[in-house]
Design brief:
Order of helices and strands: EHEEEE
Number of helices: 1
Strand content: 15-25%
Length: about 90
Amino acid sequence: MEIPKGYHVEVYSRSGMARKGIIIPNAPGIVDADYRGEAMVMLYGLFMKGHEIFQIGSRVAQCRLVKNVETQFQVVSKLSETSRGSGGFGSTGK
């Protein structure tokens, strides 16, 4: 694939593959516009035992073309407060 300048492609697991326990471990994978070559997808079998053989078809992933957003960052000495704060991984109690 040749991705237009100013865009990137995000690569996701297909729901049918994920239902069988076959996922893309780093999803979404990112493919930049300057990449040229064969598109490859790393797959991981969640429920595989040892070196179990599992036959897959040709549709193992799905892609989304995304326009890059120009972003500028600013270094600050303090962040604004929120009700959640810096808590993560279930800290909200929900």
